[in-house]
Design a protein that fits this description.
The chain folds into four domains: 4-104, Immunoglobulins (Immunoglobulin-like, Sandwich), CATH 2.60.40; 110-208, Immunoglobulins (Immunoglobulin-like); 218-297, Immunoglobulins (Immunoglobulin-like, Sandwich), CATH 2.60.40; 321-407, no CATH class. Strand 19 (185-194) and strand 20 (197-208) form a beta hairpin. The protein is rod-shaped, with a radius of gyration of 36 Å. By secondary structure, the protein is mainly β. The chain has strands at residues 4-7, 10-13, 18-22, 27-31, 35-39, 49-56, 61-65, 69-72, 81-89, 94-104, 110-111, 126-128, 134-139, 144-148, 151-152, 157-162, 165-170, 174-178, 185-194, 197-208, 218-220, 236-238, 248-253, 256-257, 265-267, 277-285, 288-291, 295-297, 321-324, 328-331, 339-342, 346-351, 357-362, 366-371, 377-380, 385-393, 396-401, 406-407.
Amino acid sequence: MKPYVYLFGILHFALTPLRAIDIGESIAYVDVGETVTLNVVSDPEDPEIIGYAWYFDGYDMLLQSGGSSYTLHNAEVEDSGTYRCHVSLLNGEYQVRVTKIVVNLAGAPRVSVGFDGFDDDPFSNYIGLGANSTKYRTANPLEGFILEVEATGENLTYEWYMDDEVVAETTTPSLPLVLFQSFEEVTFQAVVSNEFGSANSGALVLISQENVSQLEILKLDRNDFVLPDNNRVFDKIGIYLNHEECFDVAWYKNGMLLGDETGGYLVFDNYSVSYNGEYTLVLTNFLGQELSNSITVDFPPPEVEEPTQLWTGEITEVPGWNYSEWFGWFNLTTLGDGWIYHEKMGWAYVSGENTGSIWFWVPDYGWMWSSAFDFPFFYHNDSGHWAYLILRELGQYGYLDTTVMEWL
């Protein structure tokens, strides 16, 4: 019933202002209580129109027979749906004009019909979901996309659906997305909500181009080209990941998580044997996880053409102490039978030719090997692991096992 008021003792009906909508618009938002008129706009070049029939949600409910316009008075939520006008032409043909109407409280979200924040480039991985529309894209497993919805309203939240199942809830209008496993066809859609109501976005249908997904780590050279020959020297290992914001990346070496490595590449700043080991990569997002193949890094020990003598560079100002550019400070006054005292290692017994590649016997640790190329990394003979000489606590150095990330 239309609202009314008393004015000077006389009952007056307060007519709600009419809003005109051209039938054929993909979607129209209407406030509860609003009165709107749907109009058929004719093309002067079309054949003469001889009849109109208006339907609601299919052809089972005839709203009106005849007339080029239909008025919806004092709209209610249950009036939301699809409105069709069957237009009969003089030549015996007919046209169907369709508009979806969403009736909601004032202040409810409204999804933009034509979202021009993204274009429809079939090669773009940024996809805008306008209202009441469906987009189709072909995609591979592990291919990333950014879905985004443009909507008006206050305090909006977003529920993201994959095949009618909620897979993420956000307070921002975008969703980084990557599918790990193989698939045939999946559909994504967003529901935008606030305290006054909700509105659905259009849909994105992803159609698979492949049936098998494989997250494969490759060896890469300094120019980022994949090397077909695994024996060639490389600067990094990794995988090409478009849209790394679509997932979390975790690198593992010999089964142990490497800290602060979140990108698609691991870069080696030199070819130290301390990098040797088996590496894997794990991608994670709200849809699950994907584990890569493993790849083994095996740098050979360096060939030292002219070994650096350890016992050179005696500092006359500090009798008994020597300094090596790669080994640091050490004391020779107690060298008898090969013993030295190092500024970080403490006591150590030196074996071999005392060149740039040396075996040490260190109390509590046993035999350890290092070189001018690898120091402060040591090969620990007992465990077969590489260890890193690093400050453990104030005034005390220790050896960190880089395989299990624990102190020796």
